[in-house]
Write a structure and sequence with these properties.
- It is a single chain.
- Helices cover 25% and strands 17% of the residues.
- The protein has seven helices and ten strands.
- It has helices at 23-29, 79-95, 110-117, 153-160, 196-200, 221-224, 229-239; strands spanning 5-10, 13-18, 53-56, 59-62, 73-75, 134-135, 141-144, 167-170, 177-180, 206-208.
- The strands form three sheets. The chain has a five-stranded mixed beta sheet, sandwiched between helices. A three-stranded antiparallel beta sheet has the order 6-7-10, with no helix packed on it. Strands 8-9 form a two-stranded antiparallel sheet.
- Strand 6 and strand 7 (141-144) form a beta hairpin.
- The structure holds iron/sulfur cluster (2 copies).
Length: 241
């Protein structure tokens, strides 16, 4: 083990990691999936959704911002944490208008896939039925804010990867909304359909036009395999070596 490495334990499994990475990254490199929605590889961590909550040396911490430490003991896949995550996912669902059977993102949606992974098939809280503005002004990209989970992936991708700053937020608490950098709506911004910001959206809020149902429902990514199984297959493959 080099001086740049630390040893930690996740769900009882001993792993080595570079001392500069987060718990989420260390887990992923070792085939352990920690659920997440606002985290996306290549973007700065934001710590907003709290789906990646773990216990690090007994203290609740978001795994996406918590750095590894030598000797750290991390609980990830426990009944307590699965219950907290189920509650968070349940609340995200009812804050928006998530009617999957009518949504083009179905089967490719990380929120939907996260719900299935956690055994959620129906919301347990009453729907709030928001009525937020839809923006169809852009020739190639649609915004349905009623499906926005305020994860900031588009905001960060537009700034950090596209170098544009097309997206931001306005309002607070229950009134918080996705905003764009032009008073004329998305059409007035510099957004291009191929921007990383568009593909960064984990749900059916930022959607490309004219590609709907190009891949049939039933043949989409999370129709084929549960979310996180690509990460877990790394561990399975290592075990088979
Ligand atoms: S964005 Fe995802 S969770 Fe929401 S309706 Fe569409 S498929 Fe369902
Ligand atoms: S539009 Fe998509 S990526 Fe942007 S904040 Fe909303 S859910 Fe996240």
């Amino acid at each position: 083990m080099s001086s740049h490495e630390v040893t930690l334990f996740i769900d009882g499994k001993e792993i080595q990691a570079n001392k500069d990475v987060t718990v989420l990254e260390a887990a992923e490199e070792n085939g352990i999936y920690i659920p997440r929605l606002c985290w996306l590889k290549g973007l700065s961590p934001f710590g907003a959704c709290r789906v990646c909550l773990v216990r690090a040396n007994g203290r609740p911490q978001p795994a996406c911002t918590q750095r590894v430490m030598d000797g750290m003991v991390v609980d990830n896949d426990t009944e307590e944490l699965r219950g907290i995550r189920r509650n968070i996912i349940d609340m995200i669902f009812v804050e928006g208008n998530h009617f999957c059977m009518f949504c083009e993102k179905s089967g490719n949606c990380e929120l939907q896939a996260m719900a299935y992974r956690h055994g959620i098939t129906a919301p347990k809280y009453p729907f709030l039925f928001p009525q937020k503005a839809v923006d169809a002004s852009h020739p190639d990209v649609l915004i349905d804010r009623n499906r926005c989970i305020l994860c900031s992936r588009c905001v960060r991708a537009s700034k950090e990867q596209d170098g544009k700053g097309v997206f931001g937020f306005t309002g607070r608490s229950i009134d918080k909304r996705l905003a764009v950098s032009s008073g004329e709506g998305l059409a007035g911004t510099t957004l291009d359909v191929d921007d990383e910001a568009v593909s960064a959206c984990p749900v059916g809020c930022l959607m490309k036009k004219r590609v709907g149902y190009a891949i049939p429902v039933g043949e989409r990514r999370y129709d084929q395999e549960p979310i996180g199984s690509d990460i877990e297959s790394v561990a399975a493959n290592k075990g088979g070596e």
